[in-house]
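Module 6 notes. Inverse folding takes a fixed backbone as the condition and produces residue identities as the prediction. Think of it as a translation problem where the source language is geometry and the target language is the twenty amino acids. Below is one complete input and output pair. Work through it position by position during the lab.
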């Protein structure tokens, strides 16, 4: 059995192990008072990813897998001996996740009662304008002044497609002559910021005034209208209606629960916040002492929301307005918007006995162990790793060949579907031809390009394998000359080589973080392996194995089905 392999396996499978309850299956090992059953071992092996399976065969493989589960229990023993399970930050973290999990389950139960009928979908389809689609084109530019200038050119007879190709900031839309395809009314507003009034009233063929689009502006023109098919949008509408109705159902439930529980602010919590607000510095930091954190700010029948929970909301939302500490109305508003729902639903879940549900208890037990395994490994291995600058430089100097950029060749091209057409076009053009413009003129496929209208191909192994003929042709073709036609997965390309950026060695400062990550990973594996070996020696008297039960736990047929191929 390979110690190094087992430790490496454990490193990547800590979170794959399920903690099944004891059953009538034979016990294959005990670690302290923890039993490792045949069922747990089988589940572990069956769920392993191919790259993590043992290289051993037969009984040696069984022992290898069993050792991984034993090592996991040893890690937990060490965590308990270090009292990491009593760490306040750890307890706070897992309790928060426990409440979130229970809250989510209870909220899902409310969601499950919500239904959407076909009639509701049809009413929404017609009332919200989903039944009308308009084929939109657009030109996106940086400023309102630029948009207005282009609009004047269009009114004077300018070609929309040509101006879109020349000016639009969105290169993909520019390559399509500004075409945005057919849009339903709500999607036009939500995705493209086209006001509903514009969608409803702008005449077909007419260019809109400049419309805000984020920090930019665009001109919109509709070129065709059509009736939409309900079936096309039915799924999206159902999702939207379900979302709305679920939110409303939860809102009603929360309001009812808050009324019944008599949710209200406390004078004690308000007084504490006011004192903190009066001494708050310019940065808006809210410094609450440990002894003050549990002070209730909102109370209700069966529970309370503490000042620290309120402070966490302020930190997470980056609310540094002094009103959030001294204005009771503002505090009450924040409480209702950001704290009430979770508090009420969790309290209702507690009342329904959800925290004691066996599945919830089992989930939390596994989650707690997973988090404890992460914590002990971080404390005992990861946080103790140091990589000296001298070691970084030494590794970089020895492995310089790993750190380099790839040669990049940028080119113009015209892409056609057949060699026959490609040869005809090649006869008609020369190196002065703008191949992008030619592609537009002939309505040919245009691949995504850079801002300067070129295609740039990094010549790393992946691209060389994907485009072998094109890569070779690009390398051999002189700068500024035409090349091709050559076959690509998209068709036959005729290209003009425009720019060649040579591969270069990357400096130490450019790759410093990558070098450190590489060294730290190697050190971590070694430290982890050494640490596991020490734990085995430390706790060997608390480990008992039953090798005679392993064949029944992991039959040859099962091992053969999960064997690693080499």
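Target side of the pair, the amino acids:
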């Amino acid at each position: 059995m390979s110690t190094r392999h087992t430790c490496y396996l454990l490193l990547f499978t800590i979170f794959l192990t399920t903690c099944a309850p004891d059953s009538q299956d034979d016990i294959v090992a005990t670690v302290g008072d923890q039993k490792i059953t045949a069922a747990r071992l089988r589940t572990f092996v069956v769920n392993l990813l191919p790259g993590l399976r043992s290289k051993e065969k037969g009984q040696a493989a069984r022992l290898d897998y069993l050792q991984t589960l034993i090592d996991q229990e040893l890690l937990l023993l060490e965590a308990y001996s270090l009292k990491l399970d009593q760490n306040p930050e750890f307890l706070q973290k897992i309790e928060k996740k426990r409440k979130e999990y229970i809250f989510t389950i209870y909220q899902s139960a409310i969601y499950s009662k919500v239904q959407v009928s076909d009639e509701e979908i049809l009413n929404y389809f017609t009332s919200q304008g989903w039944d009308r689609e308009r084929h939109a084109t657009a030109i996106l530019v940086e400023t309102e002044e630029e948009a207005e200038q282009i609009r004047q050119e269009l009114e004077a007879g300018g070609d929309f497609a040509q101006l879109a190709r020349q000016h639009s900031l969105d290169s993909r839309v520019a390559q399509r002559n500004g075409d945005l395809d057919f849009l339903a009314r709500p999607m036009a507003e939500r995705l493209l910021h086209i006001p509903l009034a514009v969608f409803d009233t702008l005449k077909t063929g007419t260019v809109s005034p400049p419309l805000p689009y984020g920090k930019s502006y665009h001109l919109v023109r509709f070129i065709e209208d059509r009736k939409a098919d309900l079936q096309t949008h039915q799924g999206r509408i159902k999702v939207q209606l379900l979302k709305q109705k679920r939110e409303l159902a939860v809102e009603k439930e929360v309001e009812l629960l808050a009324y019944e529980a008599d949710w209200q602010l406390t004078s004690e919590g308000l007084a504490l916040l006011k004192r903190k607000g009066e001494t708050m510095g310019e940065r808006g930091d809210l410094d609450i002492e440990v002894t003050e954190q549990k002070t209730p700010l909102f109370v209700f029948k069966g529970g309370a929301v503490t000042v620290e929970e309120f402070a966490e909301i302020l930190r997470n939302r980056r609310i540094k307005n002094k009103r959030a500490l001294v204005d009771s109305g503002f505090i009450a508003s924040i409480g209702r918007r950001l704290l009430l729902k979770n508090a009420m639903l969790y309290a209702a879940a507690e009342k329904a006995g959800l925290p004691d549900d066996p599945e919830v208890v089992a989930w939390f037990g596994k989650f707690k162990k997973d988090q404890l395994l992460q914590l002990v490994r971080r404390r005992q291995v990861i946080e103790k790793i140091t990589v000296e600058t001298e070691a970084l430089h030494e590794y970089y100097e020895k492995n310089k060949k790993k750190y380099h950029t790839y040669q990049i060749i940028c080119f113009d091209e015209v892409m056609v579907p057949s060699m026959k057409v490609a040869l005809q076009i090649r006869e008609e053009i020369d190196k002065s031809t703008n191949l992008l413009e030619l592609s537009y003129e002939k309505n040919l496929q245009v691949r995504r390009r850079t801002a300067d209208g070129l295609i740039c191909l990094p010549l790393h192994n992946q691209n060389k394998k994907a485009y072998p003929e094109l890569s070779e042709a690009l390398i051999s073709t002189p700068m500024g000359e035409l090349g091709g036609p050559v076959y690509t997965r998209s068709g036959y390309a005729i290209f003009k080589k425009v720019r060649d950026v040579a591969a270069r060695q990357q400096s130490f400062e450019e790759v410093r973080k990558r070098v450190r990550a590489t060294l730290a990973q190697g050190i971590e594996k070694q430290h982890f392996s050494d640490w596991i070996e020490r734990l085995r020696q430390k706790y060997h008297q608390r480990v008992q194995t039953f090798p005679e039960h392993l064949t029944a736990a992991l039959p040859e047929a099962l091992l053969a089905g999960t064997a690693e191929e080499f």
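Reference fact for the lab report: Residues 1-24 have pLDDT under 50 and may be disordered.
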